Structures are given as C-alpha cells and as structure tokens.
Amino acid sequence: MADRPTRLPEPQPDRSKSAIENALVLTPLPGIGTDVFTNASPLWSPPGARGLYGGAVIAQCLSAAQETVPADFYVNSMHGYFVLAGNGEVPVIYQVERIRQGKSFATRSVQAKQQGQCIFTTIISFARESSGGRRVIEHAVPMPDVPLPDGHPTDTQSWGGVVGPLETVDVQPSATEGPPLKPYEMKVRRWVRARGSISQEGGPQPHLCALAYMSDRWFIGTAWAVHMAALQASLGAEPAPSARPLPGSRDKGNQPTNSETPSTDPREKGASGDASPTPQTSCARDGHSDQQTRLPQDPPLKIGMMVSLDHSIYFHRPLGFRVDDWLLTEMDSPWVGDGRGFVTQRIFDKDGVLVATCVQEILDEE
Predict the structure, then answer these.
(1) Nearest CA to 84 among 118, 135, 59?
(2) How many CB atoms lie within 10 A of CB 28?
(3) Residues contacting 169, CB < 8 A, separation 6+
(4) How do residues 240-290 score in pLDDT, each as one tens digit?
(5) Distance between CA 336 and CA 189 in Å, rounded?
(6) First vs last Cα of the chain: how many Å apart?
(7) Are the CB atoms for 165 and 263 separated by under 8 Å?
(8) What is the CA radius of gyration of the chain?
(9) pTM for the model
C-alpha cells in the first residue's frame, strides 16, 4: 500500500461542488475487484485523536453502496460497527457485497479496510422510491420549538485554522423552574448545515452522504455533556450551554448562540470509535470544552478515553431535505452504566420534518 493517504494522486477540488462533496469523493478500483472503491482525498483526523473521523468512513461506506443499487433506490437504514482505529496516513479500501437485490428493497454490506484489516463494517438497506404503497399510516415526533439561527453568526474555522465542511449554531439553554433535571432528561440541541451549496448533478445522494457524515459529530460527547450539565445544575453551577431540559411546563424557550466549528474538537473521537481523553470536570458546547469548568466541591468524576462501539442511522425521509440548509439535531442519553453509554439523536429539517434518527453505544476506557 502506498505511503500516502490516498491510493491514487489526489484530484483537484471540483469548484462546482461543496467542500463536503469534495471531501467524500470515491474512486473505483476495478483492477482490484468489482464494487471496490477508495477515498480520492485524504480523510480528516481530529487533532489529538487516535484515528480518522468516523463520520467520513460512515459516509463513504454509504456512498460506495449507493454505487451498486438502482437509481430509484434510496437508503432507509445503515448499521455499522467500529472495529479498529483508522490511520489518516493510509488509504481506505471499501469493498461492497451485494447481499440481496429485490423489487422493493436491496441490501448491501460494506467493509472499510486499511492494509488488509477491517476498520469499520456496515449493513445498509435501500428501499425503492414510493415502495410503501398508497395506503400508509404516518406519525412523527414534532420538532422542538427552536427559532432558526438566521442572523446569528456561524464559525467554520476548525482547530489549526483549517476551514471545515460544516457550520453550526448551538442552542442556548434557558433557565428552568423546579428541581434540577436528571441526565436522561437533558437535551443537546444545535443547528448544522454543510458549508456552501450541494451541487444538483448528484441528486439526493450527496445530501444523504453528508447527513451520514455529520451524524457522527458531537455524538459521542452527549452522555458526558448531559451528565455534567445535570451535576452542575444540582450543585448550583451555571448550566452547560448545549444541554437543555425537555420541553414542557419547565421549558422557558431557547435561543441560538454562536458556536465554534463542528469539525475540530481535538478530543472528539476519530474513525473506528477512537477518541482522545476528555477533561475530568468540563462540560460545554460539544461535551468537550477547551475550557475546564471547576465544579463546586470538585466532585470525584473520572472520564477516560471515550470510543464509539457502533453507529446506526434510520433515514426516515431520504428525499426532500437539503444538508446545505439548516438542520436541527437533538441528542440525549437514556442510559449510562458499566463503563458504557447509549446516545440517541433526532435530525429535523427547518420545516420540522423528522429526517433521521441515529443511535450509538459508547465505551469509556479508563
């Protein structure tokens, strides 16, 4: 394998496409085998993390699988496992297996490999457009009452001064009445969109891959963020800026606030579920603040290396949304214990449509 992050020379960025499209371009490798692809550009490794950013590998697995299904089939779910930490200095090879091709559904498996070893594996299901029939029942959880961030500045500068492909605006929590909320009652909300405009030539597929990319950002820190926010509230400290209570009688509304870029936290995990240590007593925008917040009485909490074990995405509405327009993400953590944690995420478009739901199990390596 070449001693460089791509197997072939890196192409020049296509100026007609957005930054995230250029970052996720794949190159087919017919000389190696059928349905084999590789990353055309180097994949991002968060500074301080032990591996690649997992969202890039997830997104490119989806992109590779999409190349093998009919044009009117769109992803409805994908379920993956992080196996090994990815290396940003080595190309990633994506091998797609065509498990099943039916009239309404198709199933593909994808293995992301480096130097012959699998770093991420996933099963992806595709559904034919309008395969649900004429008579369908529908319901969906409503979007929280959060104002659009129009007029609020966004910051796309990543750590190290590199401009990332995403823009984000965190939602400011408001004061609550009554007793402090429990960690499982907290929500972490933020607006996010792709920087620039997604090109028209790829249809819905670039938006789906970009959604997969962004679904892994900030996710692993949710369990830590809500736990620390609840602890701060119980001790009378200021609440964390991105952990907010459930809507209801105690919900006094929330406002967008400027956020640092979503693609740069050096303590954010990399591909294959790898992460860097989290500060022992910090709780801030992404659950990994660069400013330590000392809690009253300095509670003896310890967080080690947080890693993702798996990642699932359910694409409820694969058509009709745009990733280059604002999407609201709402994250929470129903359970943490025994050195593991469970986090969920709902993604809405600006019109309130529930576009996708994501789940992830995490491991706290002390």
Answers:
(1) 118
(2) 14
(3) 149, 152, 154, 190, 191, 192, 256, 257, 258, 259
(4) 444 444 433 233 344 444 433 333 332 334 454 544 333 322 232 232 222
(5) 19
(6) 34
(7) yes
(8) 20
(9) 0.82
Alpha-carbon distance 270 to 45, whole Å?
A: 6
Distance, in Å, from the CA atom of 141 to the CA atom of 65, rounded to the nearest integer, reads 29
The rounded distance, in Å, linking the Cα atoms of 353 and 48 is 36
- Tens digit of each residue's pLDDT (9 = 90 or more) over 87-117: 989 999 999 999 999 999 999 999 999 999 9
Closest CA to 108 of 213, 35, 56: 35
| Token reading at 299 | 């509670």
What is the maximal distance between C-alpha atoms in the chain?
65
> Tokens representing 170?
């965190």
- Exposure of 62 by Cβ count < 10 A (0-12 exposed, 13-18 middle, 19+ buried)? buried
SS3 260: coil
Amino acid (1-letter code) at residue 20:
I
Give burial (CB, 10 Å; 0-12/13-18/19+) of 2. Answer: exposed
Q: How many CB atoms lie within 10 A of CB 179?
A: 9
Q: Which residues contact 196 (CB under 8 A, 6 or more apart)?
A: 18, 19, 20, 324
**CA–CA distance, 65 with 60 (Å, rounded to integer):** 9
| Residue scoring higher pLDDT (220 or 348) | 348
Place of tokens 């979503």: 262
3-state secondary structure 266-321: CCCCEHHHECCECCCCCCCCCCCCCCCCCCCCCCCCCCCEEEECEEEEEECCCCCC
CB 354 within 8 A of CB 141: yes
Name 358's bridge partners: 313, 345
Q: How many other β-carbons are positioned within 10 Å of the β-carbon of residue 150?
A: 10
pLDDT in tens, 298-312: 444 555 567 889 999
Enumerate residues 6+ apart whose C-beta is below 8 A from 247.
Answer: 144, 145
Angle at 230 between CA 337 and CA 335, to 5 degrees: 25
Q: DSSP letter string over 85-99? A: ---TTS--EEEEEEE
Q: 187 by DSSP, 3-state: which? A: strand
